[in-house]
Structures are given as C-alpha cells and as structure tokens.
C-alpha cells in the first residue's frame, strides 16, 4: 500500500506541462485506492499513465508559454501592446529552457532560477521600451508559486499539517528563489552595461508601467487564449478545455467587476473562488469530471504568486523594507481562496460526501 501511495503522490505532483492523459489522468487511480479496488491493477494503471507520452509536444509547450505570457501581461499586469509582445518573447525563452530541462534532468535543478536570470537580464536590456516588472513577472507566469500556496492553505485548513506545512514553506521559498533569479539577472546586465557604457543612473525604471494599457475590450478575445494556454501547461486535453474555460470566465469576470466596487482583494478573490468552486462541483454533477479539473485555471488567475515574487524581489533589492510582509500578503489571499472553495463544497455537500483522496474537491 505504501508503495502505491508513493506512486500516487508522484503522479499527482508531476510537472503539469508534461502530465499524461490530461489533468485528471490519476483521478481514477486515487479513487480506486480509496475504494479498496485491487492494488495491483491500480499500480499498473499508474505505471501506464507515467510511461505514456506527454499530452502536448514541443510546439504545444511553445504555444502555452508564449500565449500565457502575452495575454497575462495585458490582462493581469496592465501592460501595453509592446509589453505584451516582449513578454511573449521572454515566455518563448522560458519555454526553450523548459524543453532543455526535460531532456537534461541535471539542468532541471536550476531551471527556475536560470529562467528568471535570463528573463530579468533581457527585460533590463529592454527597459527603455517596456515596464520591467510587468514584462519580467508575466514572462515567467507558468513558474509562479501561487497555486502551490493556495493548495498549502487548503491542506492546512483540512488539518493535513505535514503536507500543508511543506507546501507552504516551499511556496514562500520558491518565491524567494524566483526573485533571487530576477536580482542576479538584473545586476549581471547592469554590471556588463557599466563596463561597456559607463555608470547607469538607476538599475531599472518602471516609468513606463501603466502607460498606454490595452483596452479592456481586448480582454474578450484574449481571455480564451489565456485559458487555453494555462490548460495546456497543466496537460489538459482538448475535451477538458470547455469546462476549464467556464471556470476562467467566472473567476476573471467576477474579480474584474468586483474590483471596481469593492477595493478589498481578499473579499473579491474569496467570492470569486466561491463561485468557481460552485461551478466546478456542478460540472462534477453534470459530467462526472473531477472538480479540480474545471476549477484549476480559474483559481490560477486568482492566486497570489506574483505578490510573492514582486515582494521578494523588492525586499532582496532593498527597494522597500515594507515588503517584508509579502509572505503574509500571499497567505492572506490564499486563505481567502481556500475559504471560498470550502464554502462552495459545503453548499453542494451540506451533509458531507464520500471519502476521497482529492482533498475537498
């Protein structure tokens, strides 16, 4: 039993972009174990999933990274068209490094930090044409640790102290890791530039941030692209896109319109998470798809990963000592999301539900 549970954990935490058989590939195996089905059959099924080729190949990975960076820069970071184009190009750089890491496991150990170094250095070189923060952070959108933070809070809320604490500490550490990569890349470029061109007045400037943002009307065609690109990064199949897009629409639209009325992020995001959770449970009732599949993309758009990376970067950079509170900000938003998801489960299952390994989904 321990051996099979170890394989279940590995399958559940495998890299999302290279996952096999879609986002819910291991769901049947989870429930088979918990329902006391034959253990050998579960192990064979898990091995089949593990040995199968990735859901999406090389070009799927390139499309996912480019499109997610391009659209997120516009919709989540208030970028201009120039910011979006440059962010998409940096997303392609990260995609190429990701492919390299998949073929060279030894490089995979430094993939995240090296990606941030390259992205930060290139964004620093292009700072005269773009907003450094928007371009750099959206360029590594797929790597942001917000979803891991939310899962950690949900684990802790469900009294799963060991796994929840590990996820929580790792999410904060991961935010520092990405921010450290940003700092190294930025300083490396500045050091080279000073040798070639003389001292610089400032390391980087965000004077172009918020200038000429894309019209919100463009969000209508961009939102499906953002949803599909994140779905691909999670290894979702085409059949699962519609359900995930529904969760994306609910989460993003609620956040967008409520932010204009209620200037309190925890309230806005917990309400959006509640709505996405309700939607995902009703999808389960209608189609039998695990709720985690339909809610994954919508919740990803609400998670506080960028808060942690930008806060850690400012702290390491000694730009704002108040950013020492960034883990608390991440935790606050994640708590709101977890509360919304648990509340939705309580509405759908007021008398409880059948025991499952998939947390509260």
Tally of alpha and pi helices: 16
First and last CA, distance? 23 Å
Compute the gyration radius: what is it? 20 Å
Order of helices and strands: HHHHHHHHHHHHHHHH
What portion of residues belong to β-strands? under 5%
What is the number of beta strands?
Answer: 0
- Specify the helix fraction band: 55-70%
Report the structural category.
mainly alpha
In total, the number of domains comes to 1
Query: Which residue ranges are poorly predicted, with pLDDT under 50 across at least 5 consecutive positions?
Result: 1-15, 357-361
The backbone outline, from C-alpha atoms, is globular
Overall mean pLDDT:
76
Q: Summarize the main sheet.
A: none
Please write out the topology:
Layout: H1 2-12, H2 27-34, H3 39-51, H4 58-75, H5 81-103, H6 105-108, H7 111-125, H8 132-139, H9 146-157, H10 161-197, H11 219-233, H12 241-258, H13 265-287, H14 291-300, H15 305-316, H16 326-348
Helix pairs in contact: 1-3, 4-5, 4-8, 4-11, 5-7, 5-8, 7-8, 7-10, 9-10, 9-16, 10-15, 11-12, 12-13, 12-14, 13-14, 13-16, 15-16
Report on the structure:
The chain is an all-alpha fold. It has one domain. The protein contains 16 helices and no strands. The chain has helices spanning 2-12, 27-34, 39-51, 58-75, 81-103, 105-108, 111-125, 132-139, 146-157, 161-197, 219-233, 241-258, 265-287, 291-300, 305-316, 326-348. Helix 4 crosses helix 11 (219-233), helix 7 (111-125) runs parallel beside helix 10 (161-197) and helix 9 (146-157) crosses helix 16. The two termini are 23 Å apart. Mean pLDDT is 76; it is low at 1-15 and 357-361.
């Amino acid at each position: 039993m321990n051996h099979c549970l170890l394989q279940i954990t590995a399958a559940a935490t495998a890299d999302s972009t290279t996952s096999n058989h879609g986002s819910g590939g291991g769901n049947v195996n989870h429930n088979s174990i918990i329902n006391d089905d034959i253990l050998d059959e579960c192990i064979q099924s898990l091995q089949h999933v593990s040995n199968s080729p990735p859901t999406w190949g090389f070009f799927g990975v390139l499309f996912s990274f480019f499109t997610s960076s391009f659209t997120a820069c516009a919709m989540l970071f208030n970028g201009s068209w120039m910011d979006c184009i440059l962010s998409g190009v940096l997303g392609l750089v990260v995609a190429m490094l990701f492919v390299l890491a998949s073929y060279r496991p030894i490089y995979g150990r430094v993939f995240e930090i090296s990606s941030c170094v390259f992205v930060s250095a290139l964004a620093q070189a292009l700072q005269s044409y773009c907003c450094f923060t928007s371009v750099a952070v959206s360029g590594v959108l797929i790597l942001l640790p917000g979803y891991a933070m939310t899962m950690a809070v949900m684990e802790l809320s469900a009294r799963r102290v060991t796994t929840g604490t590990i996820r929580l500490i790792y999410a904060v550490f991961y935010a520092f890791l990405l921010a450290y990569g940003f700092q190294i890349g930025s300083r490396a470029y500045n050091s080279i530039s000073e040798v070639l061109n003389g001292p610089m007045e400032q390391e980087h400037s965000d004077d172009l941030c918020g200038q000429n943002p894309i019209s919100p009307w463009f969000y209508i065609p961009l939102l499906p692209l953002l949803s599909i690109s994140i779905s691909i990064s999670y290894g979702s199949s085409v059949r699962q896109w519609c359900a995930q897009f529904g969760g994306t629409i609910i989460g993003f639209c609620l956040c967008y319109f409520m932010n204009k009325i209620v200037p309190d992020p925890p309230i806005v995001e917990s309400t959006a998470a509640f709505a996405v959770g309700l939607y995902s449970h009703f999808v389960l009732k209608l189609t039998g798809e695990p709720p985690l599949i339909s809610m994954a993309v919508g919740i990803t758009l609400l998670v506080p990963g960028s808060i942690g990376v930008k806060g850690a970067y400012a702290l390491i950079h000694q730009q704002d000592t108040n950013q020492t509170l960034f883990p608390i900000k991440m935790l606050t938003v994640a708590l709101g999301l977890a509360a919304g998801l648990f509340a939705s489960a309580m509405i759908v299952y007021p008398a409880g539900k059948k025991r499952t390994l998939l947390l509260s989904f």
